[in-house]
């Protein structure tokens, strides 16, 4: 009867219908049938005592909330927890896989073995050595390891871009024979894999011998995956490319996980920069503002101090109204330079430009040179390096910093006469690392600079990726990382 007080039986019947409907609508993969029954009884008991439950503020219980033989506990819905960007989500690492996941399994590993060659002679094996820890780990776990990489920019199958010299160097580094397979797909690979024993390692031919690789053709990626059981990406240097061997193959092999090198890059370039110990400083060098716009904007929103170096200094100086002589200037970026400096001011970021510079009368290693104030560069002369006072100032600014990231040289370090500013920064970072600071060299020419100075092993992390480092620092999603399984 309308208006009449409902009886206890009517209340319980209504509650039973509401509760049964809520639980019955949950997928069986979310809540097992026995759990539904247990939870139904529990909710009915609670409902009898409390008269009403508002189901709209609950969601299905998480795995962590379920225990054998106990009732499922509903959790409040919090929509914001699902709105994390891909790059902030931890990716599963090869080290997290169980021994049973690897023993006897065929593991397809994308490495970055793109090393410089003089004919068939490797002139710098840094990238090969960086790949060794992941390879050794997989082999020690009894996996059958299948390595792939690109080398150079071949136009079809060109012998000068063959990875065969890399197989020889890997054999030396691993202390065991690394078989070389003269293709990366097809029967040659199937035959080679069939002959692999547990712990064996094989290197496939240059994956870019096929144009389908860079076009990320699904059928090609499927052929790459055909002879493997799972995927490991250890090629940070190409993680910003959505290619067949970096992104496409992950659709056909599961699990798809990060190798140790890739994980280290993410830990430093994403982790340390996202949650830095402060004060946090960034040193951004290079010739042009236009190539570093996004990374400068991103870092201004994160750092306490921003040091500008390299050729881009003179665009900022001219934007301030100073004469820069014949120094490199992007005339169409003067307004941009002003806006970036103003942004830093608004954010409370200390914006540091050199106060003196080493100038030259021509762009050459044997040019005449002298040191002048950065605001007094005469006509016919160009700035090619930081001056000694600028170096002292930068060193003083960095002295109290707990996190420092460096991308781009301070000058034309390739010429010894103009390498002092860059070398001094490398030495300073090595000294600060020894005192407990986290120092990160974010790819590009600054890596070559620390290698030249012999200080790479004295810093916290030297990135193996140029473009990938920049894009990660800019906050962009790297396709090769996004394709991997979440931790």
UniProtKB/TrEMBL annotation:
Cofactor: Mg(2+)
Pathway: Carbohydrate degradation; glycolysis; pyruvate from D-glyceraldehyde 3-phosphate: step 2/5
Record key words, sorted: ATP-binding, Kinase, Magnesium, Nucleotide-binding, Signal, Transferase
Keyword Kinase: yes
PROSITE patterns: PGLYCERATE_KINASE (PS00111)
EC top class, as a word: transferase
InterPro entries listed in its UniProt record: Phosphoglycerate_kinase (IPR001576), Phosphoglycerate_kinase_CS (IPR015911), Phosphoglycerate_kinase_N (IPR015824), Phosphoglycerate_kinase_sf (IPR036043)
Coiled-coil region: none
Reaction catalysed by this enzyme: (2R)-3-phosphoglycerate + ATP = (2R)-3-phospho-glyceroyl phosphate + ADP
Annotated GO MF terms: ADP binding; ATP binding; phosphoglycerate kinase activity
Taxonomic superkingdom: Eukaryota
Gene Ontology BP, a term: glycolytic process
Signal sequence residues: 1-23
Protein family (similarity comment): Belongs to the phosphoglycerate kinase family.
Complex and partners: Monomer.
The protein, known as: Phosphoglycerate kinase
Organism: Nannochloropsis salina CCMP1776
